[in-house]
Amino acid sequence: MPTKSYSLEAEITREIEELELKYLNKYYYFLKFTLDEILEGLKTRDKIAEDWKGLYGTNISDFSTGAERVIYALLNGKGIGTPNSAPVGSDLFFEVQDAFIHIDLKTVGATLSQNKKVGANNIGDFAKDIFIGTNQNSYSANIFVNKGKENQISRPYKSSLPPIYNKSDKDKAKPCLTYFITMLYDKDTLETLVINLLCMPNGLLKNIYEDRPIKAGKNPNKARFNFSKTPDFELLNDEKRVKIVFFKENMDAKYHQKLKWQYNLYKSQK
Questions:
Q1: Is 17 part of a structural domain of the chain?
Q2: Which pLDDT tens digit goes with each residue over 119-162?
Q3: Beta bridge partners of residue 76, listed in sequence order
Q4: For the chain, how many structural domains are there in total?
Q5: Whole domain around residue 237: which residue ranges?
């Protein structure tokens, strides 16, 4: 167990970033290594499509439930860390030797159909930011709406997770690390278009990232991780907080244009 005291917060920001990068790389290379299994697993629904299509209405995603099963089965099977049963946290919550790790999967559907019955084209909910819950991160900050304009307003955003677990006990204290696996799929074909891995800054890094990681959600009590505004580990040289695990290069040009920022990042990783 670590013996580092986390009472002097200003002195450990770089150490936290190093830990965030360490586990970001671990999960990124694991997802890349298992990418064939992930993509094949996501297609298994097609074998019994006639038995489930149209049975669940609009209250259940055609994609997210099955995607969670595939991704979480692989991550749980890897056996990294010890699962934690705390009622507050992301869908996956592990304790490792030097940190507590939260991982949550987000799925977003997009469509090229003009048929309103198909549903909204939500690609804008994926391209540069993603919806998050207060119980999925440790970053508290002000959310600004119309920032820099005369009608600017701000409201406080309070996360539910602590930046450091067991902060008062130097022998048990460990930082809270937050990751999101985000997936974009085509609502019409259920094809997987993009898979990302994102690392949201720990709350103690607020002096570095200020309000940039957080932006307003669609509703007043909701927030989003603005990952395109914090794409780098800013205390580490040339290291990215955003990893593109999979990008379907032959997707429709309309999708491609909306995802230009992510595509450029994907190409730079090769």
A1: yes
A2: 567 898 899 999 999 999 999 999 988 777 787 788 899 999 99
A3: none
A4: 1
A5: 9-269
